[in-house]
Amino acid sequence: MKILVAVDGSKYSREAALWAVKIARKEVEYKIIAVYVEKILSRNDYSLSDEDLDLRIDKNAKNVFEKSFENIELDGIKIETRVEKGSPASKILDISDKEDVDLIIVGSRGRSGVSHFFLGSVSDKIFTYSVRPVLVAKVREIEPIIETVAIT
Questions:
Q1: Cβ-contact 133, 104 below 8 angstroms
Q2: Is there a domain that residue 96 lies in?
Q3: What residue numbers bound the domain in which 26 lies?
Q4: What pLDDT digit, counting tens, does each position of 103-135 carry?
Q5: What residues does 79 pair with on adjacent strands?
Q6: How many folded domains does the chain comprise?
Q7: Alpha-carbon distance 102 to 130, whole Å?
Q8: Which residues contact 42 (CB under 8 A, 6 or more apart)?
Q9: Which of 74, 70, 75 is nearest to 11 (CA)?
Q10: Which residue of 17, 45, 70, 147 shows the fewest CB atoms closer than 10 Å?
Q11: pTM
Q12: Which long-range contacts (CB under 8 A, 24 or more apart) does 50-59 make?
């Protein structure tokens, strides 16, 4: 099973990372691809050279990956990391297609009402436009327990 998990360092993406690891533990063969996308509005937003910008993004990504998987017992679970620049939803969907993943896991910020309607969110876009199964993980007070997983 190939699992793509989108991370941004928030508690919501940490929950998504937790689910990815828990599901992978139940599989005989798995691949977890953790994806961090740096949303770049324009070069003018960053007064850095291309090289300095890439170094900054790589540093941000390292922190995001560490924070997202912090205190999650990996115990032999291998995670491939990817760093992209651009629109998070578009990049995540592109990678899911290129890698032919079986499941996409994203965190949910739980927005609702008018701001949700006008602003949308990465998880909403992925859920709406993905042709693959999507698990939108909400933050819980206790760690989830998965007994069996069946994806058909």
A1: yes
A2: yes
A3: 2-137
A4: 999 998 754 444 444 434 889 999 999 999 999
A5: 32
A6: 1
A7: 11
A8: none
A9: 70
A10: 147
A11: 0.82
A12: 57/83, 57/85, 58/83
